[in-house]
């Protein structure tokens, strides 16, 4: 890729806080990842109890659950709130019950590892000027029709804080993404306003709450958000400080996506207060030198 293109991507990333890269994956590659994601759902019915992933309901907040805290170096399952009844039983078919699977797919699953450490990903990291990039977590997100819930406006740095260089999110659409099935909404330029709050490990070791927010949730004007519908195979690069969200899936079509976050390790600090830390099965290894093969 030419230096002009590299400068263009970096310039847009620094200016808007995100970049849309169409045709990042080919159709058959997306289909292979979707097939792998669907295969993962076959384990859903056996998970007991069924942990809920919710960014909306504080009573179901994932950071209250040790299962979430221990998912840093495992392949763990998180269910939609509307998929589980008060007795912890599934109200829907297991194949559409999951919100996501994470957080070490990038190292522990052969197919997701192959795409995470591909030459395309390495090339983007170079274009962004990253010297020693490492993937810290990964997720397969289902956003199934009628059950895929809302993701409230947030910054990824709230959860994966690094300084002085924020993390970079790779959000890859594995199916066509529309306003109706829950596309990302992004607030362009919002990354320039700093970090609005952080989720940190609770310094009170006697508390039952392992993680706490250091500030109340900010309120963002709805007019600041731009819908970003994209075709299958598109990668949206997200600056760690850019504010983004997604609405519930109100369509009859699913919106599967694969996403992971990379941090710069060169002259940069990954906070020891972050919920996710390196695990024995998922160290923060260099993207440039890590093999696609397990």
Show the helix and strand layout.
Blueprint: H1 3-16, E1 18-21, H2 27-40, H3 66-69, E2 75-79, E3 98-103, H4 105-108, H5 110-116, H6 119-127, E4 133-141, E5 151-154, E6 162-163, E7 168-173, E8 184-186, E9 199-201, E10 211-213, E11 226-228, E12 235-239, E13 244-246, E14 257-264, E15 269-270
Antiparallel strand pairs: 1-12, 2-3, 3-4, 4-14, 5-13, 6-15, 7-12, 7-14, 8-11, 8-13, 9-10
> What Rg do the Cα atoms give?
18 Å
* String of helices and strands: HEHHEEHHHEEEEEEEEEEEE
Number of helices, where a helix is a run of at least 4 consecutive DSSP H or I residues: 6
* Percent of residues in β-strands: 15-25%
Spans of at least 5 consecutive residues whose pLDDT stays below 50 are 56-63
The percentage helix is: 10-25%
Mean pLDDT: 92
Structural class: alpha+beta
> Kindly, what is the distance between the CA atoms of the first and last residues, rounded to a whole number of angstroms?
28 Å
Main sheet attributes: strand count, strand direction, barrel closure: 7 strands, antiparallel
In the sheet with the most strands, the strands line up as 1-12-7-14-4-3-2
The best one-word shape is globular
* Total strand segments: 15
